[in-house]
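Support request from a user on the community tier.

User writes: "When I paste my structure tokens into the form, the page sometimes reloads and wipes my input. The last time it worked, I copied everything first. Here is what I submitted, just in case something in the input itself triggers the reload:"
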């Protein structure tokens, strides 16, 4: 797999469109960090890491309002073929502040809001709204 973050976003998008209660995928620290941010921001209900060492899996429990997913859209910004880096004053606002930008910074993976507050820039991973 050449882009695990894109795979994570696609699995979440597909599970939301199919109205599945949850999903699981292979574990990585980056995917776990992104999933924990999505939980903290209220886009998914729960994140659990199960298994040991090489057989770890991430289990996500999705959130719905009626028969519609809380996540309206996901967009991968920085791809393996074209990385996109931003300074702290260039971090874009997603949907006029109604969405979330997720960045990988020297201080760890964080939202655009937190990165602006801590005055750090980094790689712009994705947008969620």
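"...and here is what came back when it finally went through:"
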């Amino acid at each position: 797999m050449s882009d695990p973050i894109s795979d994570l976003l696609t699995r979440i998008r597909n599970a939301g469109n199919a109205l599945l209660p949850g999903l699981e995928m292979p574990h990585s620290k980056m995917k776990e960090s992104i999933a924990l941010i999505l939980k903290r921001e209220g886009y998914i209900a729960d994140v659990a890491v199960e298994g040991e060492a090489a057989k770890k899996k991430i289990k996500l429990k999705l959130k719905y309002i009626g028969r519609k997913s809380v996540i309206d859209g996901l967009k991968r910004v920085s791809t393996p073929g074209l990385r996109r880096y931003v300074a702290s004053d260039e971090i874009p606002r997603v949907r006029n502040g109604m969405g979330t930008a997720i960045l990988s910074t020297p201080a760890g993976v964080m939202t655009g809001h937190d990165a602006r507050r801590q005055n750090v820039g980094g790689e712009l991973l994705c947008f969620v709204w």
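Agent notes: The reload is a front-end session timeout and is unrelated to the input. The chain is about 25% helix and 35% strand. The chain has a mean pLDDT of 96. Escalated to web team.
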